[in-house]
């Protein structure tokens, strides 16, 4: 099964210069915990609700003054829409992430895939379970 069959399409991005209060409000309205950071139609990083909390709020930064680029993770882990889900599950394990952005072969954002997508859409609970176990080992 290919990633394009299980991914979530229509993923929204935020800009590198977006203030953190704007990013957090966008996450709230979209009911998500992660947003790709895009510039000129290309992914330049990822920002999570956890990063906002740990890297900005806990450090006493003003979310109206700090931008996404200041706390984002610049190395966005990605896969291609035509890759096999098993390969992507291994990528999640190796990189200890629960979500990966999905690009087309022109490296344009087309979706995002999560461990939940792998479990629910493929019906392969063992595949998703192994990936989750590997990711969770390193987050405690």
CATH class: Alpha Beta
Number of helices: 6
N to C succession of SSEs? EHEEHHEHEEHH
Gap between N and C termini, in Å?
31 Å
Estimate what percentage of residues fall within beta strands.
15-25%
Major β-sheet strand ordering: 1-6-5-4
Largest sheet: number of strands, sense, barrel closure = 4 strands, mixed
CATH third-level topology = CBS-domain
Q: What is the CATH superfamily label?
A: CBS-domain
How many domains, in number, for the residues? 1
- Count of DSSP strands: 6
Uncertain residue segments: none
Question: Could you walk me through the main structural features you see in this protein, from its secondary elements to its overall organization?
Answer:
- By secondary structure, this protein is an alpha+beta fold.
- The protein has a single domain, classed as CBS-domain (Roll), CATH 3.10.580.
- Helix content is 39%, strand content 21%.
- It has helices spanning 20-30, 49-56, 68-71, 85-95, 115-122, 125-137, and strands at residues 8-9, 34-39, 42-48, 78-80, 99-103, 109-114.
- The strands form two sheets. The protein has a four-stranded mixed sheet. It has a two-stranded antiparallel ribbon with strand order 2-3.
- Helix 5 (115-122) packs antiparallel against helix 6.
- The radius of gyration is 15 Å and the shape is globular.
- It starts with 7 loop residues before the first strand and ends with a helix.
- The relative contact order is 0.20.
